[in-house]
Design goal:
Chain lengths: ~170, ~270
């Protein structure tokens, strides 16, 4: 096992623990539920085989599900996120950058913000509608997902400066 | 055959994606079959231990608040005891109102959420402490939930703030009853439905458990009426209830064991079969 995979195992466990112990405890009028754990998928190296991304996404989601009694809900959303990620990357990245970790330091703040904003928003919208399992209350659910995505986005961008300190 | 194989290999990512999504959706849709599979919920050893450890750290910082709530409850119980002692036993009516005899276990909440669509609690007591499935969970202020799953040392509780179940509740003054269910967004309100139009309900009236199910004994507080909604064309009115339990700050709860439960269920079953 090389240094990189150990770092990712650490990131996986940290992401799950931060989510279930801190993020799930945030109570703000029922509107904002940040899902910070997606940072694990966002920070996977650009070159990872796609089947592995999907499997890792599934493992991450099902771990969150076990802690929050929601079998399948987070798993389906993270698999969706892992499936979409390569398409977002390929439209946004130069050839010589493939193979790097998509962090702020490697890719630049502007690139990272665009990349994470799109993926977080899509993930949250998918997740909130799957959780409701209905399109009634359409705008309420949309509002909750957009507000929560905004919150997650800020947390993930800020966390970049804590994780990748020089 | 070969071209089929090539096709599968070429699009393996998409097929894996489909497979994983189908699997997750099956878990969601067949939720009721899976919710009692312990390794998939928070009473399993790993997640319960994590919550237990984390809660003991949180507890340390909240000792003051916990102490205050406990001493308030003490005071209230002492007052009730006093008034009971003062009641003239001779003049009291000769029958007992509650038919179910109830034992209570004390348990600590190690995990609680109020901001999800389906909220659950995890308690630090399990099978080895006498907790069983379908026991009612209450706190000093009123109804909290019902035990959904137990492991050796932990239990998962379906909170009142969970759209997947409804409590059988009644209007205390008139005894009209109906299902009470959480509305979704706001953790302070739930809705009592199926109360006929002609029943007069006022703001501030008490809503309590009906005692018609064997989970909760009769008369445990659920909340007070906040608002009554008459939708035209409907034969029932919808009552908005302000819940008496503050779900955001739960520390200790009581798990109720109805000692006559089996007898009661058996009797009700045999009546239904006739």
């Amino acid at each position: 096992m090389n240094k990189g995979s150990i770092w990712y195992i650490g990131l996986f466990m940290t992401a799950v623990l931060v989510q279930v112990l801190f993020m799930d405890a945030i109570q703000f009028s029922g509107l904002v539920n940040p899902y910070f754990y997606v940072i694990f998928i966002l920070l996977l190296p650009l070159y990872v085989p796609r089947y592995l991304q999907l499997l890792l996404g599934f493992m991450l989601g099902i771990s969150i599900d076990v802690f929050s009694n929601t079998p399948g809900i987070h798993a389906s959303a993270t698999v969706f996120l892992a499936f979409l990620r390569p398409y977002i990357i390929s439209t946004n990245v130069d050839e010589q950058d493939r193979g790097k970790i998509p962090s702020v330091m490697n890719m630049g703040t502007g690139w990272f913000m665009k990349y994470s904003a799109v993926l977080i928003l899509l993930h949250h919208i998918f997740l909130f509608y799957i959780e409701m399992f209905t399109f009634s209350d359409f705008f309420n659910t949309l509002l909750r997902s957009v507000l929560s995505a905004l919150f997650t986005f800020v947390l993930i961008v800020v966390s970049q400066f804590l994780i990748f300190r020089k | 055959m070969r071209s089929l194989l090539n096709f599968l290999i070429k699009y393996h990512v998409f097929f894996l994606f489909l497979f994983l999504e189908m699997f997750s959706l099956t878990l969601i849709v067949r939720y009721n079959n899976f919710q009692r599979v312990s390794f998939l919920n928070s009473s399993n050893a790993i997640s319960a231990t994590v919550f237990d450890r984390a809660q003991s750290v949180v507890d340390y910082f909240q000792l003051k608040r916990i102490n205050e709530t406990l001493s308030e409850e003490n005071t209230r119980l002492r007052q009730q005891l006093q008034s009971l002692l003062l009641t003239d036993i001779e003049n009291a009516s000769g029958y007992v109102v509650g038919v179910d005899t109830v034992e209570a276990y004390s348990a600590k909440v190690i995990r609680n959420s109020v901001n999800k669509q389906y909220n659950y609690l995890t308690l630090n007591k399990g099978e080895s402490d006498g907790i069983e499935l379908d026991m009612g969970v209450v706190c000093a202020d009123g109804v909290v939930g019902v035990v959904l799953d137990v492991s050796e040392n932990y239990a998962t509780v379906l909170s009142v703030l969970n759209g997947r179940w409804a409590i059988n509740a009644k209007h205390k003054e008139t005894n009209y009853f109906g299902p009470l269910q959480w509305g979704g967004l706001d953790p302070s309100f739930a809705y009592l439905e199926e109360i006929p139009y002609h029943v007069k309900i006022n703001k501030g009236d008490e809503i309590v458990t009906s005692g018609y199910s064997s989970i909760f004994p009769e008369g445990i507080s659920i909340g007070v009426v906040e608002e009554i909604e008459h939708s035209s064309g409907d034969t029932f009115q919808e009552v908005k209830v302000r819940l008496s339990v503050g779900f955001g700050g739960l520390f200790y709860v009581n798990v109720l064991k109805n000692t006559n439960k089996e007898e009661r269920i058996e009797l009700e079953k045999s009546t239904r079969n006739e």
